[in-house]
């Protein structure tokens, strides 16, 4: 018999797979509020430009546009659970739901409609009720998640050459950590239940390395930062050796 408790909802998805309707670790331990707010603003700016280009929409829809909406869903859920969420006007749960309105086959008009709701949530003007909890494995699909993770490598390396303490410098690493939470929750690539601990360990290693990387960048310590950058990538390589 499965017992359901108010503070932790468990949803069974398949044999050996489950999704916690909250982050596998406390969001505030891996993502400072300011970093989340900064990245929300960045992705809103990215989508604002992308959705203006009607000619390029179909080309960019399965790539950057899908990645941005997926990332915004993760950022929204991170805000919904964050202990400091009251310090920002962004409505995290509403932002998540708005981002999830976008589907991989959405038309340009559908994408624009979702984006309008994203902007309302960012401004704290969304209406209606939005549940605080949401399964982390239902926020972003694995492919756009991995593409988003990979796209940050170059930006992080540029920062590590000469960290200057600018506001946005650690955000790429924090974004890695947030995506790591979704990665840990999404175990559909694990075909053998006995391999679940391996998946969780690789995800934990990635989250930890990403968090330490953000801290090193914030401290302008490029040597320590490079150590944790390499550790994060090594955790990905080790995972890919087991899970294809």
How does this model look, in words?
InterPro entries: Cyt_c/b562, Cyt_c_II. This is Cytochrome C. Keywords: Signal. GO terms for molecular function: electron transfer activity; heme binding; iron ion binding. It comes from Thalassoglobus polymorphus. The chain has a two-stranded antiparallel sheet. The protein folds into two domains: 92 residues; 103 residues, Four Helix Bundle (Hemerythrin (Met), subunit A) (Up-down Bundle). Helices cover 59% and strands 4% of the residues. By secondary structure, the chain is mainly alpha-helical. It is built from nine helices and two strands, in the order E-E-H-H-H-H-H-H-H-H-H.
CATH superfamily of the largest domain: Alpha-catenin/vinculin-like
Mean pLDDT: 91
The number of strands is: 2
How do the strands of the widest beta sheet line up side by side?
A: 1-2
SSE string, helix = H, strand = E? EEHHHHHHHHH
- Compute the number of structural domains: 2
What's the CATH C level of the largest domain?
A: Mainly Alpha
Low-pLDDT residue spans: 1-18
CATH topology of the largest domain: Four Helix Bundle (Hemerythrin (Met), subunit A)
Estimate percent helicity.
55-70%
What distance separates the N and C termini? 34 Å
Number of helical regions: 9
- Beta content comes to under 5%
What CATH architecture of the largest domain would you give? Up-down Bundle
Quick one: overall form? globular
Alpha-beta content class: mainly alpha
Descriptive tags:
244 residues, mainly alpha, Four Helix Bundle (Hemerythrin (Met), subunit A), 2 domains, two-stranded antiparallel ribbon, 59% helix, 4% strand
């Amino acid at each position: 018999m499965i017992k359901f408790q108010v503070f932790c909802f468990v949803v069974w998805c398949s044999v050996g797979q489950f999704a916690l309707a909250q982050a596998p670790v406390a969001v505030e331990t891996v993502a400072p509020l300011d970093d989340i707010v900064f990245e929300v603003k960045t992705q809103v700016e990215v989508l604002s430009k992308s959705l203006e280009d009607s000619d390029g929409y179909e080309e960019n829809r399965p790539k950057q546009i899908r990645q941005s909406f997926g990332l915004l869903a993760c950022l929204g859920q991170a805000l919904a659970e964050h202990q400091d969420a009251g310090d920002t006007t962004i409505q995290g749960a509403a932002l998540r739901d708005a981002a999830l309105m976008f589907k991989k086959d959405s038309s340009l008009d559908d994408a624009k409609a979702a984006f309008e709701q994203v902007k309302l949530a960012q401004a704290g003007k969304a209406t209606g009720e939005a549940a605080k909890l949401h399964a982390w494995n239902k926020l972003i699909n694995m492919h756009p998640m991995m593409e988003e993770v990979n796209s940050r490598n170059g930006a992080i390396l540029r920062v590590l050459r000469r960290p200057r303490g600018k506001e946005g410098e650690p955000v790429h690493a924090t974004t890695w950590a947030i995506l790591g939470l979704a990665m840990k929750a999404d175990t559909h690539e694990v075909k053998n239940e006995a391999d679940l601990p391996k998946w969780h360990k690789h995800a934990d290693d990635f989250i930890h390395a990403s968090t330490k990387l953000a801290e090193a960048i914030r401290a302008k310590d490029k040597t320590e930062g490079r150590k944790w950058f390499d550790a994060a990538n090594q955790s990905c390589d080790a995972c890919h050796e087991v899970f294809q």
